Amino acid sequence: MKMPAPNASVLSRKDQIVSRLQAVLPENAVISDVAETRAYECDALTAYRCPPLCAVLPANTQEVAAVMKICHDMGVPVVPRGSGTSLAGGALPTADCVILGVAKMNGVIETNYPDRYITVQTGRTNLSVTGAVEEDGFFYAPDPSSQLACAIAGNIAMNSGGAHCLKYGVTTNNLLGVTMVMMDGSIVDIGGAYMDAGGLDLLGVICGSEGQLGVVTEATLRILPKPEGARPVLMGYDSNEVAGQVVTDIIKAGVLPVAIEFMDRPCIEATEAFAKAGYPMCEALLIVEVEGSDAEIDAQLALIMEIAAKHNPVELREAKSADEAARIWLGRKSAFGAMGQINDYMCLDGTIPVSQLPYVLRRIGEMSKEYGLGVGNVFHAGDGNMHPLILFDANKPGDLELCEAFGADILKLCVEVGGCLTGEHGVGIEKRDLMHTQYYPVDLEAQMAVKDVFDPAWLLNAAKVFPLDSSEARRAAGDH
Amino acid sequence: MTPQTEQDLSELIKDAQGPLSIQGGGTRSYAHVAGDKVDMRAMSGITLYEPGAMTIVAKAGTPLSEINAALAAENQRLAFEPMDHRALLGSTGEPTIGGIVAANISGPRRISVGACRDFLLGVRFVDGAGNIVKNGGRVMKNVTGYDLVKLMSGAYGTLGVLTEVSLKVLPNVAQTGCVMLHGLNDALAIKAMSAALGSPFEVTGAAHLPQSIQGDPITMIRIEGFDASVKYRADRLRDLLKPFGDTTVQIGETDDGYGTHKGWKWVRDVTAFSDQPGDVWRISVKPSDAADIVAKLDATAVQYDWGGGLIWALTDGGDLRAKLGDFKGHATRIRGAGDAPVFHPEPTPIATISAGLRAKFDPRNILNKGLMA
User: Fold this and answer.
1) How many residue contacts between A and B have a Cβ separation below 8 Å?
2) Domain for residue A114, yes or no?
3) How far apart are CA A473 and CA A192, in angstroms?
């Protein structure tokens, strides 16, 4: 993975930069010791590492603004960091950058139930947003798998999804307003506790911009009343095609489950060995969950079970108790851990039209043989968001490169059938150089034009999202 | 000028010598836009519809009626319930899907399922320099690059002319019910709507009309879904709302009445104002601020949607914003004339960003010039 060469002038001014940052931040909020900066050398894409020039941990919007102003004035690149759980390298530093971590900013600013929103500092973790409102019967809907650790700042940067977005949408559908610090240190408020933009939908383009347009320090999020209850069913089929057809039939029947999860045989086998959830050994397994009162759940599940039964399932299991429901989810929730027991893995998240599921799964199986690398599939089937987990051995020379080539081929396949490179993880550095397969240069120009407006010198997380050759002239112009 | 293809449109824009007024069905002109008219209706037709993937792709000039008919045949719908402006604005013609997306038009269901922009999966457009650009796609989850899809929705054609849009659709519902409260004042009605929206009973519409056709205030809470479920939730809501006053419940369709499709269409299209003279404003606010804001308006008539978050106000002219001063939200003049800008003036830092984006996407400032800024 190529990263731009660090700016020598910035590297040579490290002491000066650090002392200016120390002057505006409390003691201990600037980390410049070489050994200590290693804590920030990577995110969850651990194959790539680079310690930053230094890291700062501001405690509020004003401190973030002070840091940004200094970096702007001194021409120092900034890489924002939430909790560092990005699977795409969104928070990977460059050697000449200041890592701006929002971890200290984790407070709740306002909770409002009549108007159904919460305003938080963005270092707060996803799960603790729900934690702040659940006793009063509310929750925050987007639920990425890393929700225990991941920060709202990163969720906004990547427009994170989760298992339940078939019904509730992703981050952008649940974000009402932000306070954001621009690269020049100015503070802007966009949106608020009311709906829709009065002018251009800036919030819409900020969400998912991978920390390239500004640093979001506070966010107003929509919270929803918790449903009365939820219950999953598990179904097993002996072919991916049939399972794919069941997904389509359920959607067409007019039921809208909150989640439809899909696991294929390699994943089921790994999961069973690891978590012993009691899954049937079959080619494809679906978990479908619906919400409502007991009677409403019964009615919806009756319809779903009827559809499922028509397709000759090898197993059809409805949770009769909370314990049984937990067991159904157990395997799914342990899937990544289970695959990790077997080997190192790379997790992709290309999205495809639901109708292409059987074809894409078959092709992935064929490619797996060609590359000689195992792959398990566990994903959100209702919205076509795949999660192929490619197994490789990090200690075996050449295996990572082989795995990346295989991954790139899978993502190209996703684009080929009408889908996209990433459904919820973001582009980061991981898919940066594949952007050409999905977009023409003119499409990328239009996106980069937006960054030109927010960050004319291209100092903010600049080596991400866009292929380096596409962004080269802009990044070079920003170098001081 | 009537471009037949994306290429036509690109050349037309490249060759333009002056401003262009972009038009779909021409049913939603909030203000006069100077320039040569570009009629998008020739670029029409559904290019892809996959009911099993809940996705439809159509060229921008496709009539809404054609989309609705295709969806109805598969028992699906555009869940964001786009408002029809014809009666309110006295316009004729057939709304197009491109116009709906460009203006981010939603209806009462916006409160629960989201706005038009939340259902928009992808766009193709021609920018002000004639570049043909695509963004997003036709899958439900897509974070590949910046989300220009959202930026284009609600830009009213000022950043680019939409040529094709891709939308998520949802299943139709089997049953509709409505719980109605009678005689509440505005503040109490908003509290009642907040209570309903804060319940687990999946309210898909919450509107308050201070003056119903019968003259008395009416507050409407809509629920949708399977028959038994709608009845169950109607009962639960009725219990929940008891402290606010007497309720009536309507399940299913009758010929008339507020709780019917006809009643919700009446709310959606702000039909009450359509045959009354005066300016019409659309104000987005925090629901709990709404009653105080309305008290300052000195309006001829008002209507609340989105649980109080959307205020429709009929006034006898002038700049309504001047009466409100600084408030959290925004006001758009949907009908009327006068010096006040149609769109809410933005604070300087935001206006600077917006102007920067316009300069990038429409460097000659020719697309619907002056409409938004």
Assistant:
1) 266
2) no
3) 36
Residue A314 lies in domain:
230-416
d(CA A393, CA A413): 24
Question: How near does any CA of chain B get to the CA of A199, in Å?
Answer: 7
Provide the domain count of chain B: 2
Smallest CA-to-CA distance from A351 within B140, B312, B65, B166 is with B140
pLDDT mean over B39-64: 96
Please give the structure tokens belonging to residue A20. 């200016």
- The alpha carbon of residue A128 and the mean position of all alpha carbons in its chain are separated, in whole angstroms, by 17
User: What pTM was estimated for this model as a whole?
Assistant: 0.96
- Alpha-carbon separation of residue B16 from A251, B281, B357, B360 (angstroms): 46, 33, 20, 17
- Measure the CA–CA gap between B121 and B167, rounded to whole angstroms: 5
Nearest residue of A to residue B305, measured between CA atoms? A195
Tokens of B119: 């259902």
CB A53 within 8 A of CB A10: yes
Strands B203-209 and B132-136, by their bridges, are: unpaired
Q: Which CATH number fits the domain that encloses residue B193?
A: 3.30.70.2190
Task: Find where tokens 């941990």 sit.
Answer: A57
User: Using CA atoms, how far apart are residues B158 and B251, in angstroms rounded to an integer?
Assistant: 43
pLDDT at A332: 87
Q: Which residues of A touch B142 (CB under 8 A)?
A: 351, 420, 422-423
Contact, B223 vs B177, CB < 8 A? yes
Query: Is A255 in contact with B310 (Cβ distance < 8 A)?
Result: no
Q: What is the pLDDT of residue A341?
A: 85
The count of structural domains within chain A is 1
**Residue A398 in contact with partner chain B when CB distance is under 8 A:** no
pLDDT at A480 over 60: no
First-last CA distance in chain A:
25
Please state at what angle helix A294-310 crosses helix B227-241, rounded to 10 degrees: 160
Q: Which residue of B has its CA nearest to A156?
A: B143
Kindly determine whether residue B53 and residue A194, on different chains, have CB atoms separated by under 8 Å: no
> What is the residue type of A339?
M
Q: Are B141 and A116 a contacting pair at CB < 8 A? A: no
Query: Are B198 and B238 members of one domain?
Result: yes
Instruction: Count Cβ atoms below 10 Å from residue B238 Cβ, excluding itself.
Output: 17
Mean pLDDT calculated for residue range A52-65: 98
Q: Which of B171, B202, B223 is the last residue of a domain?
A: B171
Query: Same domain, yes or no, for B46 and B110?
Result: yes
Residue that has been written with the tokens 């003036």 in this structure? B345
Residue B146 DSSP one-character state? -
Of the candidates B104, B148, B285, which has its C-beta nearest A205's C-beta? B148
